[in-house]
Amino acid sequence: MALERCDVEKIAHLARLGLAEADLPRTTDALNSILGLVDQMQAVDTTGIEPLAHPLEASQRLRADVVTESNHRDSYQAIAPATDSGLYLVPKVIE
Amino acid sequence: MQWEVVIGLEIHTQLATQSKIFSGSATTFGSEPNTQASLIDLGMPGVLPVLNQEAVRMACMFGLAIDAEIGQHNVFARKNYFYPDLPKGYQISQMELPIVGKGHLDIALDDGTVKRIGITRAHLEEDAGKSLHEDFSGSTGIDLNRAGTPLLEIVSEPEMRSAKEAVAYVKAIHALVRYLGICDGNMAEGSLRCDCNVSIRPKGQAEFGTRCEIKNVNSFRFIERAINSEVQRQIDLIEDGGKVIQETRLYDPNKDETRSMRSKEEANDYRYFPDPDLLPVVIESAYLDDLRATLPELPPQKVERFQSQYGLSAYDANVLASSREQAEYFEKVAAIGGDAKLAANWVMVELGSLLNKLGVEIDQAPVTAEQLGGMLLRIRDNTISGKIAKTVFEAMANGEGDADQIIETRGLKQVTDSGAIEKVLDEMLAANAEQVEQYRAADEAKRGKMFGFFVGQAMKASKGKANPQQVNQLLKSKLEG
Amino acid sequence: MHQLTLAEIARGLADKSFSSEELTRALLARIHQLDPQLNSFISVTDDLAISQAQAADARRAAGESGALLGAPIAHKDLFCTQGIRTSCGSKMLDSFTAPYDATVVAKLAAAGTVTLGKTNMDEFAMGSANESSHYGAVKNPWSLEHVPGGSSGGSAAAVAARLLPAATGTDTGGSIRQPAALTSLTGLKPTYGRVSRWGMIAYASSLDQGGPMARTAEDCALLLQGMAGFDPKDSTSIDEPVPDYSASLNTSLQGLRIGLPREYFGAGLDPRIADLIQASVKELEKLGAVIKEISLPNVQHAIPAYYVIAPAEASSNLSRFDGVRFGYRCENPKDLTDLYKRSRGEGFGSEVQRRIMVGTYALSAGYYDAYYLKAQKIRRLIKNDFMAAFEGVDVILGPTTPNLAWKIGAKNADPVAAYLEDVYTITANLAGLPGLSMPAGFVDGLPVGVQLLAPYFQEGRLLNVAHQYQQVTDWHTRAPNGF
Fold it and tell me: What is the predicted ipTM?
């Protein structure tokens, strides 16, 4: 399952990672190397086996419907790159 | 070419919990930006979600109300995509194993028939934040107060065949979630949002045509118009030789047309996988049994019962049962007043237009059910006429007290003493001797109109207080001679 | 004072041989003096440490006692520490001051620990050599040209160099046990769900666990006692009572059944390491243990399964790092996509970007079944192997690593080369089992570790076996030259 450069570009876009042109070949090779390792899984017979998502098969605990949080906007936004009037700012998005 | 319209709806309902689905933040609408956004809602590094039990209960109630299979082992999954109102870069939703499976809802069509619409599934997920595009030149402002509010996404089968059916379905869902007390259905505030999937196909064709999704239509009227305009667009496109491309569109009510959305990526690969920070939700049968016992009487049963118990027409039953509050109000009035049809009339017509005028819902009606019921008793025992009742009703709405108080204070008691009425009539007829002669000389047809003149005069002379039926009766006999 | 273990410190503070403040000042001075050689700290928190030490001394004066009261430790820079930079070894979080404390941090602070600083680590916990940190590689105090292991390389190096007695680490594929082995420390990865993950910045959510790293099992028991426990803020936290880990350290090993998986002693294991492991087995037999050969037939598939599951979960966990609400933001983003791509492209190092891409690919349309789902099925096969094995043995023993520490830079050419070093450790993460590594000797001056695995929630057993072993051996008492 070898990746081509265009596959790598698509994956990088899905993951919103800006890859430099110059790095593409090396990244493609590295990814193919990892996928080569991972493809070994295909040889394993897993017929009838259920996937294991959590090691200790417990079930979700529920919490009571109570408001426990209060307003900490100032301290949370103190570490934000860009805010205005309490809003987080990003470059304009056209809908 | 005969076209068939195929519509499926995805309705997002905000569940009326106190706190968010995965965090303890408040869900109040309209607060200052980012004052209801906790560490979890902001997607800070290291935070973890914990599930709100009330969201589970509300989803199960919905499932039971639509006769659906409940997913007794349901799983939360991550829907991965990048957008600034989605702080974690993924939305916690449900994919393969939703909390509610296949169910159905019956809708009343305009022609009086009932159609059963299949519901594919309903699942829990968290809402995203809001983007504000005005106010910041070159930037968009993000408010995450809404991020994490619990949503129940209800997906219908593509079984609606017209915009009107679609609206009837949305109205039925709207009424149902309000009946269950799980969502306030406030479309203007975004508590209930509708995405319409619309496609067309030649009549008789089995395969579906390519569909377009019209996102976030927020009123019943717009839903109908948006669907109709999209259908027309698709018909025109195909008949001109074009092809419908699968895409997401927005409805512009000013131009009454749909347009393609530019920002949301088409054919997004959401890379769903079970959220490893949450465990599978297990719902015991005993829990569901207990919950089932708490289900209120639902709209379809109420409509049926209003017809059989009160003898109302299907139309009236549907109107009165359209909201739980209205149904309860009506039944109270009927019980106190002792006449269901009279109660139905007053609630639908007089109260209805009053509420409309004031722009309020029935839970803020200025006349209580007790007051209205009390007034109806006075109509029935002939203390007041139906016409005078309108005056009494207005006075109650203005806070002048109960019916009895108003009738007393304003001296609105109806005159029912035949002797007294006869006296008034005799005087009136004597004062209009010429018209009496003309009446007696006229034929059937002309008499009808002239009779009205005498009734009017009689009511005027009695200051409206004479019992109309008696006036009619006595006038007739006096005029006949 | 820097030679003292946590247990000795607890006794020294209790009988007033020294105060927490004296000890803290001495260690801070030692850190400032010696750490430039190792680069094991990202942040040294002098002011915080002194004020915490003074507070602990005051609590002790007021009559409080407790094994961790006034104990100096450090936290891997993956645990959120309120008001203090929490970087995960990444440029992405270089400017991130955590707005809250991780549960582990809060619990230990409540018990009276003194935080000397935040330790260096592989970026976002992705690595086995601590070479991928934005803050530079960490050196192994046993040989400054060699890697200390990773991703908790900073905690390992600092403790091994006696800059402090103990530190917290996290383990997703071996990141506590492997650096412990390469630096001659005792390190424990608890059962999945034993230690809260609230505030422990996520790499792979279903594999991550926080745990103690120290020079002795006795110290690990003390630190684990303060870390373990149910946390309602973590849905994956298990509500299982926490036993007294120190109380069971001295249980006799008579009759203990130890399983040796034949798959762990095959090709690929450095024979010199194999010899030391066999020697440790002999010691345990002398203490009364009974040895059985067992088989874990599916462990050979663990590496590919791990290198799908971990990157897949990581690719999603790291999506929140987008330059919007915290962390690194690129200069002058021209639009939203540019903001994302450059903030993430410039903020993340190359190993992190590679794993994000592998994970994204593994979850993408058309590949989910063949990769992610397949890996989760193999995971169940591995768990089943262990469950079956534990029917007949009480602990499983094997090497922690197949090779000795390698030279810094030696495995940079091929990412997969480093991945293969995790072969013995990742199975415990996949199955959620507790695992411990303890010192078993040296080869050419480089430390070797032996690993023990136990059934769920039997950390006490692991610490007991390790402690008994440490009563009859002295590998754990050796210190590196110059430290």
Answer: 0.96
